[in-house]
Amino acid sequence: MRPGFAQPVSLSSGVKEVSQERPSHLTTVKEIILENFMSYEYARIPLREGLNLIVGPNGAGKSSVLLAISVALGQAYTERSRKLSDLIRRGKEIARVSLVFDNSAKAGHRPIPYSKSDTFMLSRYLRRDGSYWFEADYKEIDKSEVVRLLREFGINPDNLLIIMHQGMIEELGAVTPQERLRMVEEAVGFSAYRQRILLAEQELSGLVGEESSLLQLIDNANQALEYWKQVYDRYQEKRKQVEHRDLLSKELLWSTEAKLSKALQGAEEKITSKTRALEDLKSQQAEVTADAEQTHQTLLDKQVELRKLYYALIRAESEKAKDESARDAYRSIKDDMAGLSSTIDELLARGGDKSGKRLKDLAEYVEKKGEAAEEDAKRRKGELDREVSSLQPEITRTEELIKRAIDSYISFRVKAEVLTYRIRVTESDLHDLERSAKEYRSELDKLVPDLENAGARMETVRQPYEVSEELKLVSAHIQKMQDVPDDAEKIYNDYSGNIEELKVKLAKLQENKKSMLVELGSRKEVWKKAMEDLVEAVDPAYQAVLSAADASGFIKLEQADAIEDAGFDLYVGFRGGAPSTLDPFTQSGGERSVALMAFLLSLQARIVSPLRALDEFDIHMDPKNREAMFKMILSQMKQREASQYIVITPSILTVFDKSAHVITVQAVHGGSEVKELK
Description:
Strand content: 5-15%
Shape: elongated
Structural class: alpha/beta
Largest sheet: 6 strands, antiparallel
Radius of gyration: 59 Å
Distance between the termini: 40 Å
Strand order of the largest sheet: 2-1-4-5-6-7
Number of helices: 10
Number of strands: 15
């Protein structure tokens, strides 16, 4: 604990034990600096000790000031936004909130002793990407350092009794009495004592459990001495079986190694054989493929030759047909001329003219030509018949060669496909063999550490499954004796001496438990007395504030005998009505606000935090009650030195005090501006 801050509560009994844990030297905030924060582009807001009143119209940015203080003090969740990045001014990427604390020396001590300056600046930076960090006097620090520093001053920004944001007066009214009590304990500096009581209860619970365990152990020890003799006898048998099991485990390892090595050797031999077979198949495939290509080329050549023969045969047949047509034509002419010859002879016998002579000559000429043409046709027919006769066997021979070439080509292709299939099968077999060999090697590699630990090689002719079966039987026998501990012999030998030792330990534990029960009872009584004293001290102030609002009521400590269930209940009645428990259903919003403000103001003299802040607590109050509450705030402020109050309100107040420091906030051109009233 640094000098100048609150010291831990003493553990000795007595009322002073729960006196408030107050820092011996408090500090206040001298200035708030806002940069790109919400509606503020840049603002410096000076603060003073006592009451700082922030006023201005709705929407001007008043609540943003308190929100900035909470963010700088480490709050991660706010009532305005679930993400800190949403608090950055529109269009900006980074925002900064800084609190400048008064660190001037008081009575020779600085509130923050490791800072030698009269001011201490705590800053928090917010980035649009959601990241943030803290700086203390421009040096980056961890959030835990911020929390520790604030705890030394009694400042917790999440405690509604210290910082109450806009609309949270209703939240304070909705908490359970137990939560309200814990909130008050923290605010007035009593929470550490509660934690020590709860810790003592945990320790006592541990002692009770240990006592029960010891009693059970002693009882078991008295009953189990004979039992452990029987266990020891079984332990001897178990030890023999364990030795046999270890020997079998070693044999199983070496048997497995021998089997895997043999399997690996066989796989490697098969791999060699398959590799050779694969090479031979690929060689055959290459030869058959070459033969198939050669046969295919021969087939193509013979097909070309056959087409040529067919073309020659067609040409010869065509020539024969032409010659036959010519012969038929000459025969027809000859027959015609024969019929004309007798006519011409008759014409000449009657003394025909020269025309008859010429016709006679023409008929003879045609007859001679016809005979010559017929002779020539006979000759050509013989030649063509011989040519056709020679082509037909050649065609037949070529067709036979083509058929044989096709058969050979198909045979080669079939052989090639068969070889391809056999290669694929062989490659698959080879792959399987290689995978098996790899698995055997992997299994052998896994066995290496165990084999090295097993020691010298053990020769065995048994297969692993044979050894494994015997090992299962021995392990099952050992399993039946699994309840026999390995230290059964020692336990048996030590049991009788341990019983007395346990009794001595039990007596000492019971004495400690008795002392702790007395101590815990005393602490609870002290805590109860302190809480009752607190109620007794603040209840008059609570009633006084209520009376100013024409109301009555009281504060009651409920279930004070049970620290976990204890709570503060608030009772209030208005306009002469009997006080009833404050809850969200019985009273109106304004009445609840008055009662909660009365409770809050009644605690002010006890709250250890130098900083307190309220934002629009009066939103549900009528003008009369609002004026009454502000009078009470001024009164409390004057009674508490070195305290700093920040009160935010949009209301126009008629109750002012020269000691109040008034700051106005106005909305100007899309931003917020502050002005200090001197």
